Structures are given as structure tokens and as C-alpha cells.
Amino acid sequence: EDGSEDDSKVNTDFAVTMKPGFSVRSFLDQIDDDADGFVSPVDDQMPSKINVDMGLSHLHSASMPELLEQLQDAREDKKRIRKKLREFEDKFLRQNGRTVQKEDRTPMAEEYIEYKQIKAKLKLLEVLIGKRS
Fold it and tell me: CA 94, CA 13: separation in Å to the nearest integer?
């Protein structure tokens, strides 16, 4: 009866480790480039300050000036959060002599989640603006 296991009993727990020598800057750059929808175990366990959908559904009916304003606000938010994360990662590197690993991100988990959500909002806004241009 191999292969006939109930899918609801599949263990979805897993650990992710980063490559040795992964730099602080490249870790944030990877977050920027990450478009595969990966949700880290930390993301799953921590509540977010922002509602998960961030009210994105209203953007489809927003006017062009509203979209442009939202885009500017989202870019400012992303920049602010990225700066905060960089400061955390730089401080961690100075204190521990190594770069931040996935399990070290817990104190800033909400910020990492918020950063990922802001990026999703930016992508949506850019697509909506592109379609209307």
C-alpha cells in the first residue's frame, strides 16, 4: 500500500539553512529578488502588524493618482523597513562575528514579514500602473 497515505498526515515541517559566507547585504537582496512565494517557518509563526491582505483588493478600482500615491507610500515604507533590517543585521554581525541565519531573525520577524508584504504590494501597484499607462 505504498503511496496510498492520506495527504492530510504529511509532515510539512522543515528547516532552511543559509550557505556559509552568505553576506548581510546579499541576504536582503535575496529577499528583494524572491518571487517564488516561499514562506519561512518564522513567517508562519509570527503575527503581522499589517493585515495579511493589506487591503490590496481596493487597488484594482483605484484611480491613477491614488495608485501613484500608494506606490510612493509603499516605496517609503519599504525603504524604512529595509533600513531597520540592515541595522539589525549589521549589529548582529558586529556582535556575533557572523551573518544572520534564519533562526536568528526571530526578534525582527514582524519586520521581515512586513517587508515581504510591502514588496508584494509594490509589485501589484507597479503592474496596475503599467496596465493603465
Answer: 31
pTM, entire model: 0.60
Burial degree of 34 (CB within 10 A; 0-12, 13-18, 19+):
exposed
Grid coordinates given for 54: 493589506
Strands (E) across 3-132 are located at none
What lies within 8 Å, CB to CB, of 75 at 6+ separation is 122
Question: Please, which residues have CB within 8 angstroms of residue 8's CB and are 6 or more apart in sequence?
Answer: none
Give the gyration radius of the chain's Cα atoms.
18
Mind listing the pLDDT tens digit for each residue in 27-86?
565 555 554 444 554 545 544 444 445 467 788 889 999 999 999 999 999 999 999 999
